[in-house]
Design brief:
Elements lengths: L1 H26 L16 E6 L3 E7 L33 E4 L5 E6 L3 E7 L4 E3 L10 E4 L19 E6 L3 E7 L33 E4 L5 E6 L3 E7 L4 E3 L11 E4 L19 E6 L3 E7 L33 E4 L4 E7 L3 E7 L4 E3 L10 E5 L18 H13 L7 E2 L10 E2 L14 E3 L1 H13 L7 H4 L3 E4 L9 E4 L7 E7 L2 E5 L8 E5 L5 E5 L2
Parallel strand pairs: 22-24
Antiparallel strand pairs: 1-2, 1-3, 3-6, 4-5, 4-7, 8-9, 8-10, 10-13, 11-12, 11-14, 15-16, 15-17, 17-20, 18-19, 18-21, 23-24, 25-30, 26-27, 26-30, 27-28, 28-29
């Protein structure tokens, strides 16, 4: 009898708990009901179709591997097109209803290309991740701010406007973009309310506002190529006549602030080297704040005269008669591309003619710290000085490529700088459309430009350029090698104090970076 009464009591308690749970369930709002096929508050959601249509797959946390087949894969749960299909390489749009940035990756294990999805973002995956999603990671406040790709121009962003006068719909960015895409649903488009909303931004921007702390370079061609305009921090106004409306194809956050809002604007401002089309500092102007190894020879990709006057729009190569150096450094003007051949040292403040050899025979220029132009064969760097001086120049050239928005590119880079890569990488990726360095391309560039020394194009060639040293005996400027001698597979430059500079994953605009030493099997002290 006692056991029957106890059982009855337990049944009543269970019934009351169920009723109470039912009442609570009715009263509670929907939130983070993960993996039920509806996109609740607190979740990150994939959609099978563009424009947030089709079946939904919802998440409340990171997932490193979606798997590829049923019944073990993560699949689309909601009603609609795609229901039941695996989500890997199958998502077209997203909605981030969390309070964190979510990073969507091209590869499993949080690897490869990625797109930062800011809190509140609802829209397409970009061209590289569209139907190419393999993992995602909740990364907190890292990456984009709350408004990135939201259609409002917030602090820290670079923004295009569809119309002149900073009017019309806005497309906002916190990172470099090498290719905008040409058509919906994969192109970068205008997100904000107003004229142009939903249209692709490529060749479609009239004005800009740079609310970041870095100079942003807007290019005529995709992958950071062709004529460009440097947009200084704080600049708000029109793109120049070359880039205005119909000619913007990529942009790059390039780090250091350049003088004035008009670098590459056709006016000669403080801090710049300026070419003039005519003698006597007359005619159209082409202005620079950085060294350039090759001007190009034809439009639309050459460096051209931008200012009003005779010669406007013509390529500057072998076309300049006079100069004005308004920078604080000596600038060397060279007869050949990549700083080769005869040269003229243009002192800070000089305003006048190029000499008889360089007049209308200018092919490259370089800002230097000394007063005499380095003499080199085929455009190599300064070979003067002792070993320690060469090491410092090598390191400075390697560091100069950080913060330039360069992507990792298999086979990319050479003695003269970043290039397009090759197909195909060991992972089967076609890098022929990616502009940047691979690991040995960066080290080859640094040693050639910094010391005039060609150490070869691969890590296996570079392993034989000096004396092997142990990891415990590394010195500043040594190469760090990964892999057994001589079959190495990665190389970096040791900076000292436990840090290195390298070109490596992530394959994004931060591929050239400084980080703490990790791994490494031995070092090579290059003979210089």
């Amino acid at each position: 009898m006692l056991m029957r009464r106890a059982s009855a009591l337990l049944a009543v308690i269970s019934l009351m708990a169920s009723m109470l749970g039912l009442v609570v369930g009715v009263a509670a709002p929907a939130s983070a009901a993960a993996r039920d096929g509806v996109c609740d508050i607190g979740e990150f959601c994939y959609y099978y179709n563009s424009d947030n249509a089709g079946s939904i797959s919802d998440f409340a946390g990171s997932v490193s591997d979606y798997a590829t087949t049923q019944p073990s894969c993560y699949d689309f749960k909601g009603a609609g097109a795609g229901q039941g299909e695996c989500i890997k390489n199958n998502a077209a749009s997203v909605w981030n209803r969390t309070g964190e940035t979510v990073r969507v990756y091209y590869n499993t294990g949080y690897g490869g290309e990625y797109q930062n999805i800011g809190p509140g973002y609802k829209g397409q995956l970009n061209e590289e991740l569209y139907n190419n999603n393999a993992s995602h990671q909740f990364v907190g406040t890292e990456g984009t701010d709350s408004g990135a790709r939201s259609g409002t121009c917030e602090s820290g962003e670079f923004c295009y406007y569809y119309n002149s006068g900073n009017a019309g719909s806005i497309s906002d960015f916190t990172e470099s973009a090498g290719s905008y895409g040409d058509a919906q649903p994969t192109c970068y488009d205008y997100k904000g309310a107003g004229a142009g909303q939903g249209e692709c931004i490529k060749n479609n921007a009239a004005s800009v506002w740079n609310r970041s702390t870095k100079t942003v370079r807007v290019y005529y061609n995709s992958n950071y190529a062709g004529t460009y305009q440097d947009v200084a921090p704080g600049f708000k106004g029109q793109l120049n006549s070359t880039l205005y409306n119909n000619n913007n194809a990529s942009h790059q956050f390039v780090g250091a602030t350049v003088p004035g809002s008009g670098s590459r604007s056709g006016t000669c401002e403080s801090g710049e080297l300026c070419y003039y089309y005519n003698s006597g500092n007359a005619g159209s102007i082409s202005d620079f704040t950085d060294s350039v190894g090759d001007y190009g020879t034809s439009q639309p990709s050459c460096y051209d005269f931008k200012g009003a006057g005779a010669g406007q729009g013509e390529c500057i190569k072998n076309n300049a008669a006079s100069v004005w150096n308004r920078s604080s450094k000596t600038v060397c003007v060279y007869f050949n591309s990549y700083y080769g051949g005869s040269s003229q040292a243009v002192a800070a403040g000089f305003k006048g003619q190029l000499n008889g050899t360089l007049n209308n025979n200018n092919a490259s220029h370089r800002f230097i710290t000394g007063t005499e132009c380095p003499v080199s064969e085929g455009g190599g760097g300064d070979t003067s000085g002792d070993y320690a001086q060469k090491v410092e120049r090598v390191i400075q050239f390697a560091l100069s490529q950080t913060g330039q928005g360069l992507t990792y590119s298999w086979g990319g880079g050479n003695k003269y700088g970043p290039t397009y890569g090759i197909c195909c990488s060991p992972g089967g990726l076609d890098d022929s459309v990616r502009f940047g360095f691979d690991c040995s391309g960066l080290t080859q560039y640094a040693f050639w430009q910094g010391a005039g020394l060609d150490i070869g194009t691969t890590s296996r060639a570079q392993v034989s350029t000096g004396t092997r040293v142990s990891m415990s005996n590394l010195q500043r400027g040594d190469l760090i090698m990964w892999g057994g001698y001589p079959y190495t597979h990665h190389v970096a430059i040791y900076l000292g104090n436990g840090q290195l500079v390298e070109a490596n994953v992530p394959r994004t605009s931060t591929s050239v970076h400084v980080k703490d030493v990790y791994g490494g099997d031995f070092g090579v002290r290059v003979s210089m």
